[in-house]
Amino acid sequence: MKEMSPDEIRSFQQDRGLHVTGELNDATVRAIEEARWKLGDRSLYLQNSPLMRGDDVASLQARLTEMGFHCGRVDGIFGEMTESAVKDFQKSVGVVVDGKCGPATIIALLRLTKIVSGGAPTALRESAVQKNRGPALANKVIVIDPGSQDYEKEIVYDIAQRLEGRLLALGASVFLTRGVNNNPNENDRITFTNQNGADLLISLHVDTHQSPEAHGVATFFYGNDQHGVHSIVGERFASLVQRELCARTDFLNCRTHAKTWDPLRLTSAPAVRVDLGYISNPGDAARLSRAEFRDTVAESFIIAIQRLYLAAEDDAKTGTLRISDLRGAGLRN
Q: The CATH number of the domain where 42 resides is what?
Protein backbone atom coordinates (compact mmCIF):
# COMPACT_ATOMS: atom_id res chain seq x y z
CA MET A 1 0.00 0.00 0.00
CA LYS A 2 1.48 3.32 -1.06
CA GLU A 3 1.90 5.97 1.57
CA MET A 4 -1.03 8.36 1.75
CA SER A 5 -0.97 11.95 2.92
CA PRO A 6 -3.40 13.07 5.65
CA ASP A 7 -5.45 14.93 3.01
CA GLU A 8 -5.67 11.78 0.86
CA ILE A 9 -6.71 9.75 3.88
CA ARG A 10 -9.40 12.29 4.78
CA SER A 11 -10.71 12.29 1.20
CA PHE A 12 -10.82 8.48 1.15
CA GLN A 13 -12.59 8.36 4.52
CA GLN A 14 -15.16 10.90 3.32
CA ASP A 15 -15.85 8.91 0.13
CA ARG A 16 -16.25 5.65 2.05
CA GLY A 17 -18.54 6.99 4.77
CA LEU A 18 -15.98 6.55 7.57
CA HIS A 19 -15.02 8.78 10.46
CA VAL A 20 -12.91 11.54 8.87
CA THR A 21 -9.75 11.73 10.98
CA GLY A 22 -6.88 11.91 8.49
CA GLU A 23 -5.31 8.97 10.34
CA LEU A 24 -4.78 5.38 9.19
CA ASN A 25 -6.88 3.74 11.89
CA ASP A 26 -8.00 0.10 11.74
CA ALA A 27 -11.30 0.86 10.00
CA THR A 28 -9.55 2.88 7.31
CA VAL A 29 -6.92 0.21 6.69
CA ARG A 30 -9.69 -2.40 6.31
CA ALA A 31 -11.56 -0.15 3.89
CA ILE A 32 -8.42 0.44 1.80
CA GLU A 33 -7.94 -3.32 1.56
CA GLU A 34 -11.58 -3.79 0.53
CA ALA A 35 -11.35 -1.04 -2.08
CA ARG A 36 -8.54 -2.71 -4.01
CA TRP A 37 -10.70 -5.68 -5.11
CA LYS A 38 -12.83 -5.44 -8.26
CA LEU A 39 -15.30 -8.11 -9.37
CA GLY A 40 -13.35 -10.76 -11.27
CA ASP A 41 -10.03 -10.19 -9.48
CA ARG A 42 -10.47 -13.33 -7.35
CA SER A 43 -12.87 -16.18 -6.70
CA LEU A 44 -15.40 -15.38 -3.99
CA TYR A 45 -16.72 -17.99 -1.59
CA LEU A 46 -17.84 -18.57 1.98
CA GLN A 47 -14.85 -19.18 4.21
CA ASN A 48 -14.26 -19.53 7.91
CA SER A 49 -13.79 -16.38 9.93
CA PRO A 50 -12.67 -13.86 8.85
CA LEU A 51 -15.19 -13.72 6.02
CA MET A 52 -14.14 -12.39 2.63
CA ARG A 53 -14.70 -8.63 2.32
CA GLY A 54 -14.21 -6.23 -0.53
CA ASP A 55 -15.72 -4.02 -3.18
CA ASP A 56 -15.88 -7.09 -5.41
CA VAL A 57 -18.20 -8.77 -2.90
CA ALA A 58 -20.37 -5.63 -2.79
CA SER A 59 -20.50 -5.55 -6.61
CA LEU A 60 -21.51 -9.22 -6.65
CA GLN A 61 -24.25 -8.60 -4.08
CA ALA A 62 -25.52 -5.54 -5.98
CA ARG A 63 -25.68 -7.45 -9.27
CA LEU A 64 -27.46 -10.41 -7.69
CA THR A 65 -29.93 -8.07 -5.99
CA GLU A 66 -30.69 -6.26 -9.26
CA MET A 67 -31.61 -9.61 -10.80
CA GLY A 68 -33.88 -10.57 -7.91
CA PHE A 69 -31.63 -12.95 -5.95
CA HIS A 70 -31.87 -12.30 -2.20
CA CYS A 71 -28.45 -11.92 -0.61
CA GLY A 72 -29.50 -9.55 2.17
CA ARG A 73 -27.92 -6.16 2.65
CA VAL A 74 -25.23 -5.08 0.17
CA ASP A 75 -22.47 -4.85 2.76
CA GLY A 76 -19.41 -6.22 0.95
CA ILE A 77 -19.17 -9.28 3.21
CA PHE A 78 -19.49 -12.79 1.73
CA GLY A 79 -21.71 -14.53 4.26
CA GLU A 80 -24.21 -17.37 4.20
CA MET A 81 -26.99 -15.36 2.53
CA THR A 82 -24.62 -14.31 -0.26
CA GLU A 83 -23.54 -17.93 -0.77
CA SER A 84 -27.20 -18.99 -0.96
CA ALA A 85 -27.92 -16.27 -3.54
CA VAL A 86 -24.92 -17.38 -5.62
CA LYS A 87 -26.22 -20.97 -5.58
CA ASP A 88 -29.68 -19.82 -6.68
CA PHE A 89 -28.12 -17.85 -9.51
CA GLN A 90 -25.94 -20.78 -10.54
CA LYS A 91 -29.01 -23.04 -10.69
CA SER A 92 -30.81 -20.53 -12.89
CA VAL A 93 -27.99 -20.28 -15.46
CA GLY A 94 -26.90 -23.93 -15.51
CA VAL A 95 -23.38 -23.67 -14.13
CA VAL A 96 -21.90 -25.83 -11.38
CA VAL A 97 -23.79 -25.14 -8.14
CA ASP A 98 -21.09 -24.79 -5.50
CA GLY A 99 -21.76 -21.34 -4.01
CA LYS A 100 -18.39 -20.09 -5.26
CA CYS A 101 -18.21 -17.10 -7.53
CA GLY A 102 -15.42 -18.23 -9.86
CA PRO A 103 -14.75 -17.49 -13.56
CA ALA A 104 -17.78 -19.33 -14.99
CA THR A 105 -20.20 -17.70 -12.54
CA ILE A 106 -18.71 -14.24 -13.06
CA ILE A 107 -18.99 -14.56 -16.86
CA ALA A 108 -22.64 -15.62 -16.58
CA LEU A 109 -23.28 -12.79 -14.14
CA LEU A 110 -21.74 -10.14 -16.38
CA ARG A 111 -23.63 -11.40 -19.43
CA LEU A 112 -27.01 -11.35 -17.70
CA THR A 113 -26.64 -8.15 -15.67
CA LYS A 114 -27.07 -6.04 -18.81
CA ILE A 115 -30.39 -7.61 -19.78
CA VAL A 116 -32.02 -8.70 -16.51
CA SER A 117 -33.10 -6.36 -13.74
CA GLY A 118 -35.38 -6.99 -10.81
CA GLY A 119 -35.74 -3.40 -9.67
CA ALA A 120 -34.94 -2.89 -6.00
CA PRO A 121 -36.19 -6.09 -4.29
CA THR A 122 -34.03 -5.64 -1.20
CA ALA A 123 -35.49 -2.20 -0.56
CA LEU A 124 -39.01 -3.48 -1.15
CA ARG A 125 -38.40 -6.50 1.10
CA GLU A 126 -37.01 -4.36 3.93
CA SER A 127 -39.97 -1.98 3.76
CA ALA A 128 -42.45 -4.87 3.62
CA VAL A 129 -40.96 -6.54 6.70
CA GLN A 130 -41.20 -3.28 8.62
CA LYS A 131 -44.84 -2.71 7.57
CA ASN A 132 -45.85 -6.28 8.38
CA ARG A 133 -44.68 -5.84 11.95
CA GLY A 134 -47.74 -3.65 12.59
CA PRO A 135 -48.06 -0.33 14.45
CA ALA A 136 -48.11 -1.53 18.07
CA LEU A 137 -44.82 -1.47 19.96
CA ALA A 138 -45.79 -4.41 22.19
CA ASN A 139 -44.11 -6.99 19.96
CA LYS A 140 -41.03 -4.96 19.01
CA VAL A 141 -37.47 -5.67 20.20
CA ILE A 142 -35.46 -2.47 20.53
CA VAL A 143 -31.79 -2.35 21.46
CA ILE A 144 -30.38 0.86 22.92
CA ASP A 145 -26.64 1.31 22.65
CA PRO A 146 -25.32 4.06 24.97
CA GLY A 147 -21.85 5.37 24.07
CA SER A 148 -19.07 4.86 26.59
CA GLN A 149 -16.52 7.63 26.03
CA ASP A 150 -15.71 9.41 29.28
CA TYR A 151 -17.24 12.71 28.15
CA GLU A 152 -20.57 11.14 27.12
CA LYS A 153 -21.17 7.93 29.08
CA GLU A 154 -23.18 9.34 32.00
CA ILE A 155 -25.35 11.58 29.81
CA VAL A 156 -26.27 8.98 27.20
CA TYR A 157 -26.78 6.23 29.76
CA ASP A 158 -29.25 8.45 31.61
CA ILE A 159 -31.11 9.19 28.36
CA ALA A 160 -31.04 5.47 27.50
CA GLN A 161 -32.70 4.65 30.82
CA ARG A 162 -35.38 7.30 30.28
CA LEU A 163 -36.04 5.88 26.81
CA GLU A 164 -36.02 2.33 28.16
CA GLY A 165 -38.66 3.14 30.78
CA ARG A 166 -41.01 4.71 28.25
CA LEU A 167 -40.59 1.84 25.79
CA LEU A 168 -41.28 -0.73 28.51
CA ALA A 169 -44.45 1.16 29.42
CA LEU A 170 -45.51 0.85 25.79
CA GLY A 171 -44.96 -2.91 25.93
CA ALA A 172 -41.77 -3.14 23.89
CA SER A 173 -38.93 -5.52 24.75
CA VAL A 174 -35.84 -3.41 25.44
CA PHE A 175 -32.18 -4.33 25.77
CA LEU A 176 -29.27 -2.07 26.65
CA THR A 177 -25.86 -3.03 25.28
CA ARG A 178 -24.10 -1.94 28.46
CA GLY A 179 -24.74 -1.20 32.10
CA VAL A 180 -23.21 1.31 34.47
CA ASN A 181 -20.04 -0.67 35.12
CA ASN A 182 -19.51 -2.79 32.00
CA ASN A 183 -18.25 -1.67 28.60
CA PRO A 184 -18.48 -4.29 25.82
CA ASN A 185 -16.45 -3.63 22.70
CA GLU A 186 -18.04 -2.72 19.39
CA ASN A 187 -18.09 -6.27 18.02
CA ASP A 188 -19.74 -7.59 21.18
CA ARG A 189 -22.44 -4.93 20.93
CA ILE A 190 -23.15 -5.84 17.30
CA THR A 191 -23.31 -9.55 18.16
CA PHE A 192 -25.57 -8.84 21.16
CA THR A 193 -27.98 -6.84 18.96
CA ASN A 194 -28.16 -9.51 16.26
CA GLN A 195 -28.55 -12.38 18.72
CA ASN A 196 -31.53 -10.68 20.36
CA GLY A 197 -33.39 -10.37 17.05
CA ALA A 198 -33.69 -6.60 17.28
CA ASP A 199 -36.25 -4.70 15.23
CA LEU A 200 -34.29 -1.47 15.74
CA LEU A 201 -30.91 -0.39 17.08
CA ILE A 202 -30.53 3.10 18.52
CA SER A 203 -26.95 4.11 19.30
CA LEU A 204 -26.74 7.19 21.53
CA HIS A 205 -23.71 9.47 21.62
CA VAL A 206 -22.55 12.97 22.43
CA ASP A 207 -19.92 14.56 20.20
CA THR A 208 -16.94 16.77 21.01
CA HIS A 209 -14.84 19.14 18.92
CA GLN A 210 -11.76 21.29 19.32
CA SER A 211 -13.88 24.30 18.40
CA PRO A 212 -16.46 25.29 21.03
CA GLU A 213 -18.58 26.73 18.20
CA ALA A 214 -19.49 23.26 16.87
CA HIS A 215 -23.00 22.35 18.04
CA GLY A 216 -26.19 20.56 17.04
CA VAL A 217 -27.69 17.10 16.59
CA ALA A 218 -26.99 14.70 13.69
CA THR A 219 -28.37 11.25 12.88
CA PHE A 220 -26.64 8.53 10.85
CA PHE A 221 -27.90 5.44 8.98
CA TYR A 222 -26.27 2.72 6.88
CA GLY A 223 -25.55 3.84 3.34
CA ASN A 224 -22.81 3.57 0.75
CA ASP A 225 -23.08 6.07 -2.08
CA GLN A 226 -20.23 4.34 -3.89
CA HIS A 227 -22.35 1.22 -4.34
CA GLY A 228 -25.66 3.05 -4.41
CA VAL A 229 -27.10 1.13 -1.46
CA HIS A 230 -28.62 2.10 1.85
CA SER A 231 -31.05 0.89 4.47
CA ILE A 232 -34.50 2.11 3.40
CA VAL A 233 -36.01 1.74 6.88
CA GLY A 234 -32.83 3.00 8.54
CA GLU A 235 -32.89 6.15 6.44
CA ARG A 236 -36.57 6.79 7.17
CA PHE A 237 -36.08 6.21 10.90
CA ALA A 238 -33.05 8.53 10.93
CA SER A 239 -35.15 11.21 9.25
CA LEU A 240 -37.97 10.81 11.77
CA VAL A 241 -35.58 10.93 14.74
CA GLN A 242 -33.82 14.01 13.40
CA ARG A 243 -37.04 15.85 12.62
CA GLU A 244 -38.69 15.09 15.98
CA LEU A 245 -35.59 16.07 17.96
CA CYS A 246 -35.26 19.37 16.10
CA ALA A 247 -39.00 20.13 16.35
CA ARG A 248 -39.19 19.43 20.09
CA THR A 249 -35.86 20.94 21.22
CA ASP A 250 -33.69 23.90 20.26
CA PHE A 251 -30.87 21.69 18.95
CA LEU A 252 -29.30 22.96 15.72
CA ASN A 253 -30.24 20.64 12.85
CA CYS A 254 -27.05 19.04 11.51
CA ARG A 255 -29.11 16.72 9.27
CA THR A 256 -28.96 12.98 8.56
CA HIS A 257 -26.04 11.26 6.86
CA ALA A 258 -25.29 7.87 5.28
CA LYS A 259 -22.28 6.11 6.81
CA THR A 260 -20.63 2.69 6.60
CA TRP A 261 -19.61 2.42 10.25
CA ASP A 262 -19.64 -1.20 11.44
CA PRO A 263 -22.53 -0.83 13.95
CA LEU A 264 -24.70 0.42 11.07
CA ARG A 265 -23.28 -1.92 8.45
CA LEU A 266 -23.14 -5.19 10.40
CA THR A 267 -26.33 -4.91 12.45
CA SER A 268 -29.07 -6.96 10.82
CA ALA A 269 -31.86 -4.64 11.98
CA PRO A 270 -32.30 -1.06 10.79
CA ALA A 271 -29.88 0.98 12.89
CA VAL A 272 -29.24 4.64 13.61
CA ARG A 273 -26.59 6.50 15.50
CA VAL A 274 -27.56 9.85 17.00
CA ASP A 275 -25.00 12.42 18.12
CA LEU A 276 -26.93 14.46 20.67
CA GLY A 277 -25.03 17.72 20.55
CA TYR A 278 -21.46 18.63 21.47
CA ILE A 279 -20.30 18.49 25.06
CA SER A 280 -17.54 20.92 24.01
CA ASN A 281 -20.19 23.56 23.21
CA PRO A 282 -21.46 25.50 26.26
CA GLY A 283 -25.01 25.72 24.90
CA ASP A 284 -25.35 22.01 24.11
CA ALA A 285 -23.67 21.06 27.38
CA ALA A 286 -26.16 23.21 29.30
CA ARG A 287 -29.09 21.64 27.45
CA LEU A 288 -27.94 18.10 28.15
CA SER A 289 -27.38 18.85 31.83
CA ARG A 290 -31.10 19.50 32.39
CA ALA A 291 -33.31 16.57 33.37
CA GLU A 292 -36.34 18.01 31.61
CA PHE A 293 -34.35 18.35 28.39
CA ARG A 294 -33.28 14.69 28.59
CA ASP A 295 -36.94 13.77 29.09
CA THR A 296 -37.84 15.67 25.92
CA VAL A 297 -35.08 13.87 24.03
CA ALA A 298 -36.40 10.49 25.20
CA GLU A 299 -39.96 11.41 24.23
CA SER A 300 -38.75 12.53 20.80
CA PHE A 301 -37.31 9.07 20.23
CA ILE A 302 -40.56 7.40 21.34
CA ILE A 303 -42.60 9.41 18.86
CA ALA A 304 -40.11 8.76 16.05
CA ILE A 305 -40.23 5.01 16.76
CA GLN A 306 -44.02 5.00 16.77
CA ARG A 307 -44.22 7.05 13.56
CA LEU A 308 -41.93 4.55 11.85
CA TYR A 309 -44.53 1.82 12.32
CA LEU A 310 -47.66 3.87 11.64
CA ALA A 311 -49.32 3.60 8.23
CA ALA A 312 -49.07 6.76 6.15
CA GLU A 313 -52.73 7.63 6.68
CA ASP A 314 -52.32 7.37 10.47
CA ASP A 315 -49.10 9.37 10.70
CA ALA A 316 -49.01 12.84 12.24
CA LYS A 317 -47.09 15.98 11.44
CA THR A 318 -43.65 16.32 12.97
CA GLY A 319 -43.75 17.67 16.51
CA THR A 320 -47.49 17.16 16.99
CA LEU A 321 -47.87 13.56 18.20
CA ARG A 322 -47.81 13.00 21.98
CA ILE A 323 -47.26 9.87 24.05
CA SER A 324 -50.77 10.32 25.49
CA ASP A 325 -52.12 10.07 21.92
CA LEU A 326 -50.74 6.54 21.68
CA ARG A 327 -53.06 5.38 24.46
CA GLY A 328 -56.06 6.84 22.65
CA ALA A 329 -55.05 5.06 19.45
CA GLY A 330 -54.87 1.74 21.28
CA LEU A 331 -51.12 1.54 20.81
CA ARG A 332 -50.30 1.25 24.47
CA ASN A 333 -51.82 -0.15 27.63
A: 1.10.101.10
